[in-house]
TrEMBL record:
Its main location: cytoplasm. Manganese or magnesium. Binds 1 divalent metal ion per monomer in the absence of substrate. May bind a second metal ion after substrate binding. This is Ribonuclease HII. The keyword Cytoplasm applies. It comes from Tissierella praeacuta DSM 18095. Coiled coil: none annotated. PROSITE patterns: RNASE_H_2.
Amino acid sequence: MLEIENSIWKSGFNNIACIDEVGRGCLAGDVVACAIIMPKTSLVEGVRDSKKLSEKKREILYDQILSHCIAYGIGRVSSSIIDKINIKEATRLAMKIAVENLQDGDGNKVYPDFLLVDAENIDLEIPQESIIKGDDRSYGIGCASIIAKVFRDRLCLEWDREFEGYNLKKHKGYGTKEHIENIKTLGPSSIHRRSFLKKILK
């Protein structure tokens, strides 16, 4: 999974920020992105697309990745903004915010010289490459996907306590049959994406 990064490093770039998002297809909650810069050595074993890992394995890798990384940043865009600008633009915005939030372990801002992005382009004047299925093909994007997934899943636990009855801790905001039935029964909460619910609420 380092073939792509190795090629970029050989081109003279050093701080490759790898970016991925989670929550794009959810009916509720923020879309969350992670930008992360991993070192060229000391790889974390077992990294792959977060969707192909168990929750327990993601939690273990989350701590290992954060202890190894040079820097990371999180970007969040709320459901109300998603409704205003659409999910594609919200995803790109979350990715941009994640890059702008890159910090090392001491809280110092870190500036990447190249962006490796999962299937998107980011509105930043930094050399970048969009990789289709990047979370499965790039080690760094795989790391970003795990951090973003665990971060958002933890947000879902908070939302579940705040917005009772939707069972957000179970389905994480995705459009499961149970979630859709709960929306029809309770109506949408303040974190539901109204633009995603038009057919459900008819």
